[in-house]
Amino acid sequence: MGKPGTIYLVGAGPGDADLLTLRAARLIETADLIVHDGLVDASILALARPDARLVSVAKRRAHHTLPQDDINALLVREARAGRDVVRLKGGDPFVFGRGGEEMEAARAAGIPVAVVPGVSAANGAAAAAGIALTHRDASSIVSFVAGQCKGLAEQDWAGLAGKGRTLVIYMGIKTAPQIAEKLMADGLAPDMPVAVIENGARPDMRVLRAPLAGLPDLVEREQVVSPALIVIGEVTAREDVAICALAEEAAR
């Protein structure tokens, strides 16, 4: 058996190809094989060389093209065959991207592995929406939470959101009613400002706002679909956010 290839866990950012790191772009352009998520934009995949093999392992709620163990096995098998493999993920590989599991699988198999960070969905979407996740006058703490994890009702979310804090919830659209109920039960005010960012940093991005108590109605009324982030905190209602929204409307 010859020398194995390297598995690169690469962050593709929130969708805009201009937000790729230089290293990510170079690896995409030279990889033998690209194993990519469904959220990776076509403009990013177009950077691959013509003879590269592209494999989609798109994941949606309750439906995975390949289970995670099979993805791990695919990466290891292809690298053992001497191929350099780019595992291309939306956002950052280590922020709700299962990059840690894939890194562990590669190391257990003795395969070289490298991690290339990407602009996270939270950072990219919030910036595109004009929402500063931290602000000297409004927030000095940011928390990231997965909104579809098991045992949601049993978790203690007290202190994650409120005055001086920002809470960013990934994968929370389907569970928005439970999230709002959970946060209010744990002490968050019903009128706490919330922003929902759908398709962040993409041409079809939408930024929708409501008080926490109105979050479930907002998601249902506007028919919000993934990928979308829920941002909760005073930073979502600042005057500079409103100015940004007006500028977006004027540009359309």
TrEMBL record:
Q: Does the keyword Methyltransferase apply?
A: yes
Q: Which Gene3D superfamilies match?
A: Cobalt-precorrin-4 Transmethylase, Domain 1 (3.40.1010.10), Methyltransferase, Cobalt-precorrin-4 Transmethylase, Domain 2 (3.30.950.10)
Question: Which GO MF terms does the UniProt record name?
Answer: uroporphyrin-III C-methyltransferase activity
Entry's Gene Ontology BP terms: cobalamin biosynthetic process; methylation; siroheme biosynthetic process
- Residues in coiled coil: none
The EC number(s) attached to this protein equal 2.1.1.107
Alphabetical keyword list: Cobalamin biosynthesis, Methyltransferase, Porphyrin biosynthesis, S-adenosyl-L-methionine, Transferase
Q: List each copy of the Tetrapyrrole methylase domain by range.
A: 6-215
SUPFAM superfamilies, A to Z: Tetrapyrrole methylase
- One Pfam entry for this protein is TP_methylase
Cross-referenced PANTHER family, in alphabetical order?
S-ADENOSYL-L-METHIONINE-DEPENDENT UROPORPHYRINOGEN III METHYLTRANSFERASE, CHLOROPLASTIC, SIROHEME SYNTHASE-RELATED
Q: Which family does it belong to?
A: Belongs to the precorrin methyltransferase family.
Report what the protein is called: uroporphyrinogen-III C-methyltransferase
Organism whose genome encodes this protein: Qipengyuania pelagi
| Source organism phylogeny | Bacteria, Pseudomonadati, Pseudomonadota, Alphaproteobacteria, Sphingomonadales
